[in-house]
Every structure is written in C-alpha cells, then in structure tokens.
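Researcher: Here's my situation. A collaborator sent me these components and asked whether they could plausibly form a single complex. I don't have experimental data yet, so a predicted model of the whole assembly would be a useful starting point for our discussion.
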Amino acid sequence: GAGVSQSPSNKVTEKGKDVELRCDPISGHTALYWYRQSLGQGLEFLIYFQGNSAPDKSGLPSDRFSAERTGGSVSTLTIQRTQQEDSAVYLCASSLERQGSGSPLHFGNGTRLTVT
Amino acid sequence: QKEVEQDPGPLSVPEGAIVSLNCTYSNSAFQYFMWYRQYSRKGPELLMYTYSSGNKEDGRFTAQVDKSSKYISLFIRDSQPSDSATYLCAMINSGYSTLTFGKGTMLLVSP
C-alpha cells in the first residue's frame, strides 16, 4: 500500500511569510510524528499525535509553530512568520500505535523548506 | 552527556567489506532498539528492530544489543555501493511515545 506522503516536497518562501506543510500518514496508523532534520543536527522531534490529539508537543521550537490533525488522518504543520533558521527538512512519520509499544515508525520523504 | 552518541563519519570502505556501525547510550531504561537507513533526499527507512538484548539477523544485516554496556551495533556483510547512506540508530523505553535518535553515521562504499 501507499507509504507516508508529504507535500510539497520542496518549498521556498520569503522571511516573514507563513507556510503549511502537509502529511498523509499510512491508512490506519493512529500515531503521527513530525520531526525536523537540519544538516549535522540529526532528527529533532517536534510533535506527536495520537488520533487527533497531541499528547506531546514539547518539541515545537516556538509559538510560531503549530500543528493539527483531522479525522485521525491528515496532519498539517504550520510555521508563521518564517525565519531563516526555520530552513530544514520537515519529516512526518506514522505508526500503527505509539512508539514504545513495539510498532515500527514509517517516514515520508520530507518537505525541504528554504527561507530566503 | 548526550542520551545517544553516534560517530558521524563518514566511514569509507571498499565493496565487499564488513561494516560495523555503533551507538552508545546512557539511559538504561531503553528497551527497543532500531536502525534506520537514510538515502540522500529521502526519509529514513526502518532496517532492523530489536527488543532488549541479543542479536538479530536479516540477510546481510545483523543488529546486536549489549544492554550491560549500553552499546548497540549494526553489521553489514559483503557491503555494496548501494549501502552508501546515512545510518541512524534509535531507541525507546516501553511505555514512552517518542524515539531518541542518534545523529547518524554516513557510510560510503566504493566499487
């Protein structure tokens, strides 16, 4: 079946603009995660959804970042008033159940965000 | 001390070599251990998944966990140029929701 799908694959935006990044998880996966990957920085956890609720949003770097998930499926990560330091690859991942239950995590190919 | 330490490399080997990739960790509560492979401009893909200590083999890949030493390894036998990628280790305690990742080791296998 289809894997995790993210769109757009690339996004170039001007500093100060808002951007929306979309994630379509694997059908039936209840857990959804957003990560950020910068060069040399590894994977940075942003937020975790279980169904439509976000029990852990501790990784969101500032109040300019927000995310929602609707219908237990599609998720949107929104960055308001983008800054150059927001430039990174934003990765979405999903799993049948939350991590720590033995359920493997499946990643999308990410959205490469460049803020000019 | 970081929770998970992983040498960034790059690790360069000739085709056919045996490759050893490693991570050390500080949290003795970690119980699930994973290795992901990430090709350039792609998302990480799960390679190996082990629970607690011991070895697990899948084709040319062997994952090894030594909880007493807080050390995990991924061995690749008969390495191929197509194995050139970044390898990330990840781990988690049972009951938690978020993986802890290493920063990844870049592997280059030359023909």
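Model: Some features of this prediction you could bring to your collaborator: The CA atoms of residues 7 and 108 of chain B lie 14 Å apart. Chain B touches chain A through 26 residues (CB under 8 Å).
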